[in-house]
Design goal:
With 376 residues, the protein is an alpha/beta fold. It folds into two domains: 10-208 and 333-344, Rossmann fold (3-Layer(aba) Sandwich), CATH 3.40.50; 236-323, formyl-coa transferase, domain 3 (2-Layer Sandwich). Helix content is 37%, strand content 13%. Strand 1, helix 1 (19-29) and strand 2 (33-38) form a beta-alpha-beta unit. Residues 366-376 have a biased composition (Polar residues). GO terms for molecular function: CoA-transferase activity.
Length: 376
Amino acid sequence: MTRSALDGLTVVDFSRVLAGPYATMLLGDLGARVIKIERPGLGDETREWAPPVDDTGTSTYFASVNRNKEGMTADLADDADRVRIWELLEQADVVVENFRTGTLDRLGFGYDEVRARNPRIVYCSITGFGAGEGATLPGFDLLVQAAGGLMSITGQSPGEPTKTGVAIVDVVTGLHAITGILAAVIARQSTGTGQRVEVNLLSSLLSGLVNQAGAFAGAGVVPRSMGNEHPSIAPYEVYPTADRSLAVAVGSDKQFRAFATALDAPELAADQRFRTNRDRVSHRAKLNPLLIARLSTRTADDWFAILTRHDVPAAPINSIGEAFELAARLGLEPIVDVDGSHQVANPIRLSETPATYRLPPPALANHSSAPNEGTS
């Protein structure tokens, strides 16, 4: 049997919805034993976020972030359940929780209490706006997209703030949580003790805004929404063709010269307004009509083939279904079968300790004295 990267690592997962469950699922894919603790009779809210449901009748939202986990229900205020939870925590390596700040402390399962019984614990807390003055603010992805500035730079114009098509702040926060957890696990190898890991959605978003946040931090520039345009690169956006839209990502002057050649318009590269990237950004309004006039003469697939031959980065705008078809054609094996549940494959490829798919999303037991291993 192939050894997994995180064999022997036990994670007690109190988290719900997306950021925490995504993080713990990826840890499970890499070999960790993950025990998901849910409220009796209620469970994770995403169990009811349907339709759609998969072939097993499970909400695809819940299934998308909860494979490779054992399931257990527990009332954290019930004496018998508390004993069972402590049995897990005293032997665990990692705890992940996203309760409202202070909730687990009041219940007696806060970081200080767990660390006192298990000094090696890595205790990850995920919040919306941190544990300080923002502790009482609700940590919903949409609200953080709004308050954190992401919606202000997404959409066709400043007057039409738009959320992203997926809860991307939760996903980025989940990835940051994994980074912190694994860093703390590595540090424990030399110190012998664990530590607290704290991540929050707002800080994760600000970090994830990269160049847009850097524009403000480094130059005091407040970015605005520009539709599909890029604030610092041109042409780097979406253009109409004879049938559907095409994304073009020209990131260098060399690529622009190749682009002009592919369009049979070499004069564009010689035009003083468009010779350098800074020139093209400054004269975007003059450049784009010229590009659209050329691109409208062929289909998106035609241009994709032509531009690819000229080493110009471009791609048609695919649906999600077409994106999966592309990944399959490229041999990326994007979908895996987990005991009858079709799931998106873990994107991390490890040559010696690859991700494994051992357990489907766990069923919600009425009451469990011990973890159950997925859905029967």
